[in-house]
Model the fold of this input.
Amino acid sequence: MSESREHAQTLSRKSALVIGVGGLGCPTLLALARSGIGRLVLADDDEVSLSNLHRQLLFGPEDVGKDKATLARQKLGALDTGLTVELAHSRFLPDNALDLANSVDLLVEGADNFATKFLTADAAFLTGRPVVHGAGVRWTTTVFAVGRGGRPCYRCLFEDVPSAEVGLNCDEAGVMGPVLGVAGALMADLALSCLLGSYDRQGSIFAYDGKLDRLRRVAVTGRTDCPLCGPRPSIVDIDEARYLAPNCAITQGAPPPHSRREDPWR
Done:
């Protein structure tokens, strides 16, 4: 059997949870769907907004006001790839995070708030699932893959949920649609590599600068005092208070997306 056919058969038995059907989730979903992956689960409860159409490739003006996840399932299903698309009918939240993570082989996170990003990292580690994180604002994006072993993890990079004074999300600062397309393609590529058992790029953060058209790869070192993947972890379960605390540690160089809204999951 050829390697390509073997890979196709392997992917047809694999599944992924995509957290956020937005500017990062849309291009990632298109690439994963066309790759031949067998099953996708979508976690998002938002509606299509006119101001987001330039970066959410699955939707058009006629979709404004409609449920994003439901529309995404319809449009991905129309590709006729044999793909099964399921809806979580919710955001990725502390009360469903472990169940959703356990239901798939891999997590792909493209959320625009820090609470969801850290929750995804914790749930992936606690369930032994690989995860691909993505972020973007203005002309820059970052993508980071964590393998099944879970180290180094997202908390090795950014430690904890920043306070409300740190950072802007893409709604507040703006983001270039094509830059997110690059990030989405890379997120799908890393996800597919993990699903096929190749983890040679895990533990590196990829940063793309759209103005300079430059992609950099920087290796991340696991922190010995990491509360999630370190030798003496303090995070051993999902506690909602961990993501809602108003005075969490501020990490210099934290990734772009952040929400100042009262609901930390939006």
